[in-house]
Write a structure and sequence with these properties.
It is a single chain. By secondary structure, this protein is an alpha/beta fold. The chain has 2 domains: about 80 residues; about 260 residues, Rossmann fold (3-Layer(aba) Sandwich), CATH 3.40.50.1820. Helices cover about 50% and strands about 15% of the residues. Strands 1-2-4-3-5-6-7-8 form an 8-stranded mixed β-sheet, sandwiched between helices. The longest helix is centred in the first third of the chain and has 99 residues. The radius of gyration is 38 Å and the shape is globular. The N and C termini lie far apart (about 140 Å).
């Protein structure tokens, strides 16, 4: 037993020593292992950093490439949009002959307005040449060339838009009364390419383009009575009509402004950012209303009410979904504050919103009849309408 016990003790000691020896070896091995792991970790970290660096570099380079590609694509699509506008314009021009050719001689003439509002390089050859633009002319087929006839100037609406067959029935109604009509596609109109589009000068030199259209008719058609010229427009066209009679009071006997853009300062407050950018674009005003409020006031009829000298009728609609009624109310209040004589009607939720009096409904025809009667008081057309039936016969083929 004792021997066995000694053996066990000796064996135990040996085991303890072996364990002790093994423990020191393990520490050395662990230390070496940890050092190797640490070495590998640092290398892996370094490799990861280098990988991330180059990955980021190539990613950013790729992003720049993508961004540049996207910009080029956007420009291509923008150019394509203008080309499609030109094609659409050509197609619509053909429709005019189909829709009013039976009652009117139709022409499209090219003439000039003032030089561009913004000239990037004033010393470049021809940089200050007048802007060239087109106008549509409609002359009743049954006129007597030995007589004089009243002229209506009809500027189209839209920030960027053009004169189209949307106005078919209105043109037929005017022709039926014996009016000669000129409808200018002033600077900034669509359908003539990007360069002309970028010439927009909302509430600025576009006013002079429209007045130049009036002057063109007087100079080139001796049967136009220069003393019986009226101007009529809706929306943006209404603004142009107002600003024309404000700036050229002796050139027009009468004016009608339907749902007119009246206060650009207020308008910038309730329209979308994309809409506001049409005005602050570098090729246009170049600044927001916040940055240059005076520039926006200068282009707003409500802030020029003191200039009114011409007989004027204004229409607006409380449910207008484009030109908020508050703009036109501001114009009306401004004219009243200046003690100006004019006529106006504020329609209450008339069906059609912004287009309520340009539709083909009975109500729209009745409202247009009132407009024509107002114009006739000052322009004395040879065949004025006396009823909605007269208007319908004149404006709508097939109605007897």
């Amino acid at each position: 037993m004792i021997v066995g016990m000694k053996y066990q003790v000796v064996n135990s000691n040996r085991t303890f020593q072996e364990k002790k020896f093994s423990s020191h070896g393990m520490k050395r091995r662990l230390t070496m292992h940890c050092r190797r792991k640490s070495f590998l970790s640092w290398h892996l970290l370094l490799i990861l950093i280098v990988f991330c660096f180059f990955n980021s570099y190539f990613y950013l380079w790729g992003q720049e490439e993508t961004s540049e590609t996207l910009k080029k694509m956007e420009l291509k699509f923008e150019d394509l949009g203008h080309r499609l506008d030109m094609l659409e314009k050509l197609m619509d021009d053909i429709l005019w002959y189909n829709r009013v050719g039976d009652v009117a001689f139709i022409d499209k003439v090219r003439h000039v307005g003032p030089p561009p509002a913004k000239i990037p390089n004033p010393t470049a050859m021809g940089a200050k040449n007048p802007i060239r633009f087109y106008s549509y002319i409609f002359i009743p087929r049954k006129i007597d060339y030995n007589r004089k006839y009243p002229l209506l100037v009809l500027p189209h609406g839209g920030v960027h838009a053009n004169f189209t067959t949307y106005h078919t029935h209105i043109i037929r109604e005017m022709i039926a009364q014996g009016y000669i009509v000129i409808a200018p596609d002033y600077r900034g109109s669509t359908g003539y390419g990007q360069d002309f589009y970028n010439q927009i000068d909302y509430g600025g030199l576009e006013i002079e383009d429209v007045n130049a259209a009036r002057q063109y008719m007087i100079e080139n058609y001796d049967f136009v009575d220069k003393d019986r010229v009226g101007i009529i427009g809706w929306s943006h066209g209404g603004l142009i009509a107002l600003m024309n009679i404000f700036d050229h009071p002796n050139d027009y006997k009468v004016a009608f402004a339907g749902v007119p853009v009246s206060d650009l300062v207020a308008r910038m407050g309730y329209t979308s950012e994309s809409y506001r950018q049409l005005y602050s674009a570098p090729y246009h005003i170049g600044k927001t209303a916040q940055q240059n409020v005076e520039e926006y006031r200068k282009r707003s009829p409500a802030w020029n009410a003191e200039k009114l000298q011409t007989p004027l009728l204004i229409h607006t609609n409380t449910n207008d979904d484009d030109v908020n009624v508050l703009e036109v109310e501001h114009l009306i209040k401004s004219l009243k504050a200046e003690d100006k004589k004019f006529e106006y009607r504020i329609f209450k939720d008339a069906p059609g919103g912004h287009s309520f009096d340009r539709l083909d409904t009975i109500m729209a025809k009745e409202i247009r009849l009132d407009i024509y009667k107002f114009l006739a008081r000052y322009l004395n057309p040879p065949h004025p309408f006396s009823s909605v039936k007269d208007l319908a016969k004149g404006g709508y083929p097939g109605i007897k």
